[in-house]
């Protein structure tokens, strides 16, 4: 017993030194000295609150932290944890109050102040559009270093969903694959006889890569790993022929559009490489191309630039001229064009512009100044940055939003698993300042410490963006209309289950007057057995409680997770009495949950549901959409998830499971970094 008391006293002293809080034995000149009984009771409630938080029962954690504060009033560490529990519950206003109370006592330093600032920024109204597209240089990947040549004359880049990117090296006739840190992963020379001046790279929907070869007058198809599949197209002026193919795009059917520079037109191929037709020649209403450049397709409209005229034309996917989006001289020396923020991103000489399609206006996104440069490509990557290709200076430049330089990355501990102590596993989430998840990070990007000392046996166990499965919580209206057409509900459920291809699970929630969890099912079960529900229908069916219940079912689910709402009837503001739209959106966003809606009636989707889709990065669709309901699952799996699982061996004393053990993490990516701190308890002994 005496030895236990000594160990416990030592661990409390370590806690005071490491956390800067007086939690176990707080003293405050503004309060009477606490009794040992108060300290013990408060500390025990705090310990239970931390464990509840890591179980994902945030309401329970809030109650326990509140109880802890009644025993140890004003403790900043408890304030911090209470704020975290409120934040994960979606009640961001209360979270900010707790964090500000902790910060006012001097706790947390710049780290806590930065967290408060980021959360406030995300809660504020959207910035001016022109301000939201101001990007600055954060890194440069040179073509050579220390006499080692990585590539020559880069002309295009393709950003992949895992954070890596391929570079088309026009001068060295190859493609070079880089990871997020600029490390060369692999390179390929294409077919057996090699590439002949590769120009543009287009990632296809199936993951393959399409390459235009300027000097070979052909297109080549490669796997996502760079393995050659086939080539198609020949030199000439007929259908399926081209002279000097440059920029690439594809439509919703997979048809391939390529700017045929030598023939001053656009050539179209089928997904299999069969020549279909060409367009862009001079006609009665269209003046014709002089030098076709970048091309992009959005909502089945083809946008094509002319490098000499400096204009952008609009066609339908059949090649019929519709209008001129930007007149001559608007984008001189135009090169590549990509879809970005549902608008056009176009590179021109030493600048990158965003073209607002609806207003036909230009915004400067990035500029290389007056130095000699030739930007041949500007491509958005999966982490919210832009990859710029400077052909003249032979480098790839990474541009990030201007706020990212000052604020850095937003890092958060989501969970700590200590049941196998001293082996500890932590789940962390990494985002940029605006909430964009960061994917593609490697073990070299993480620096994990405990009590500010580097941990032992550190490993990166998993990266959620690589997951190919998902979990969903399906909310089914129990409205009178859904009761009449319940077979339609069964059809949607079965189609979603089939789209999951046997991976993940589906929770069914009935949105009745009192929401009911009908159960958790495997996709195979819902395919083979018709859906049955216990909840009765009601004209007073509840929306907000059902969505909240659905979100709660996903807290401990797979990292790729979503609430899917099957909507029959209109929804009014009365449907969000207990949980507001903003609280529901925050709850889902702060726990990595997306919201999708399936409109089961031929009508406009209720604005409230559309709002949740937008705020959480989901989407909505109509039950009889051309491609069905399956794109919801495809979209969910394809969306980036910045969650990582790290493991290490702890060397801290546990006081038989009663010591609060601190752990810290710093994430470094090129010139940006972010940090977070937390703590946990080992199992009681």
Give a verbal description of the structure:
The protein is α+β, with helices and mostly antiparallel strands and 685 residues long. The protein has 15 helices and 42 strands. The protein has four domains: 2-123, Serine Threonine Protein Phosphatase 5, Tetratricopeptide repeat, CATH 1.25.40.10; 132-405, Neuraminidase (6 Propeller), CATH 2.120.10.30; 410-466 and 642-680, Immunoglobulin-like; 471-638, 3-Layer(aba) Sandwich (Rossmann fold), CATH 3.40.50. 24% of the residues lie in helices and 35% in strands. Helix 2 (36-55) packs antiparallel against helix 3, helix 3 (58-71) runs antiparallel to helix 4 and helix 12 packs parallel to helix 13. Residues 1-32 have low confidence and may be disordered.
Q: What is the helix content?
A: 10-25%
Give the CATH architecture of the largest domain: 6 Propeller
What's the arrangement of strands in the largest beta sheet?
Answer: 36-35-34-37-38-39
Number of helices: 15
CATH superfamily of the largest domain: TolB, C-terminal domain
């Amino acid at each position: 017993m005496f030895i236990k008391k000594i160990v416990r006293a030592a661990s409390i002293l370590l806690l005071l030194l490491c956390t800067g809080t007086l939690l176990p034995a707080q003293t405050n000149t503004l309060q009477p000295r606490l009794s040992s009984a108060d300290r013990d009771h408060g500390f025990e409630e705090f310990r239970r609150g931390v464990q509840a938080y890591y179980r994902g029962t945030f309401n329970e954690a809030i109650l326990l932290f509140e109880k802890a504060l009644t025993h140890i009033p004003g403790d900043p560490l408890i304030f911090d944890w209470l704020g975290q529990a409120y934040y994960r519950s979606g009640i961001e206003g209360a979270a900010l109050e707790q964090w500000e109370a902790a910060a006012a006592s001097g706790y947390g330093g710049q780290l806590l102040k930065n967290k408060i600032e980021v959360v406030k920024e995300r809660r504020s109204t959207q910035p001016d559009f022109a301000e939201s597209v101001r990007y600055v240089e954060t890194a440069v990947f040179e073509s050579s270093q220390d006499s080692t040549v990585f590539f020559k004359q880069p002309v295009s880049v393709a950003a992949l969903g895992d954070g890596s990117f391929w570079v088309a090296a026009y001068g060295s006739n190859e493609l070079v694959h880089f990871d997020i840190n600029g490390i060369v992963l692999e390179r390929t020379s294409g077919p057996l006889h090699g590439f002949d001046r590769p120009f543009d790279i287009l990632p296809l929907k199936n993951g393959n890569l399409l390459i235009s070869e300027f000097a070979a007058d052909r297109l080549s198809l490669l796997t996502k790993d760079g393995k050659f599949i086939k080539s198609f197209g020949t030199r000439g002026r007929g259908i399926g022929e081209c002279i000097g193919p440059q920029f690439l795009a594809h439509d919703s059917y997979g048809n391939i559009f390529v700017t045929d520079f030598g023939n001053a037109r656009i050539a179209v191929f089928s997904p299999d490489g069969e020549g279909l037709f060409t367009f862009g020649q001079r006609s009665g209403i269209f003046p014709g191309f002089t030098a076709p450049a970048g091309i992009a397709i959005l909502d089945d409209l083809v946008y094509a630039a002319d490098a000499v005229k400096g204009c952008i034309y609009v066609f339908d996917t059949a090649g019929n001229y519709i209008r001129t989006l930007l007149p001559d001289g608007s984008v001189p020396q135009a090169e590549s064009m990509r879809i970005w923020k549902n608008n056009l991103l176009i590179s021109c000489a030493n600048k990158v512009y965003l073209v607002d399609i609806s207003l036909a206006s230009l915004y400067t996104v990035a500029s290389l100044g007056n130095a000699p440069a030739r930007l041949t490509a500007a491509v958005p990557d999966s982490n919210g940055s832009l990859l710029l290709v400077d052909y003249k200076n032979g480098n790839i430049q990474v541009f990030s939003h201007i706020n990212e330089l000052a604020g850095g990355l937003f890092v958060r501990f989501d969970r700590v698993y200590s049941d196998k102590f001293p082996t500890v596993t932590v789940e962390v989430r990494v985002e940029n300042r605006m909430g964009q998840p960061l994917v593609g990070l490697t073990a070299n990007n993480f620096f994990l410490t405990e009590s500010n000392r580097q941990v032992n046996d550190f490993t990166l166990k998993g990266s959620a963006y690589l997951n190919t499965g998902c979990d969903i919580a399906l909310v089914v209206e129990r409205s009178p209309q859904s009761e009449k057409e319940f077979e339609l509900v069964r059809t949607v459920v079965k189609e979603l289950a089939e789209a999951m291809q046997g991976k993940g699970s589906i929770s069914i929630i009935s949105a009745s007057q009192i929401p009911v969890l009908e159960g958790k099912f495997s996709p195979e079960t819902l395919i083979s057995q018709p859906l049955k529900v216990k909840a009765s229908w009601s004209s007073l069916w509840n929306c907000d409680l059902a969505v909240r219940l659905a979100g709660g079912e996903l807290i401990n689910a797979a990292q790729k997770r979503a609430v899917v709402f099957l909507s029959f009837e209109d929804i009014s503001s009365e449907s969000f009495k207990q949980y507001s739209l903003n609280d529901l959106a925050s709850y889902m966003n702060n726990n990595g949950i997306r919201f999708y809606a399936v409109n089961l009636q031929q009508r406009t989707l209720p604005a409230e549901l559309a709002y949740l889709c937008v705020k959480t990065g989901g989407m909505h669709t109509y039950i009889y959409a051309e491609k069905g309901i399956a794109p919801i699952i495809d979209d969910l799996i394809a969306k980036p998830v910045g969650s990582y699982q790290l493991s290490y061996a702890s060397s801290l004393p546990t006081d038989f499971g009663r010591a609060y053990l601190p752990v810290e993490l710093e994430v470094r990516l090129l010139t940006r970094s972010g940090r977070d701190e937390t703590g946990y308890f080992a199992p009681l002994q």
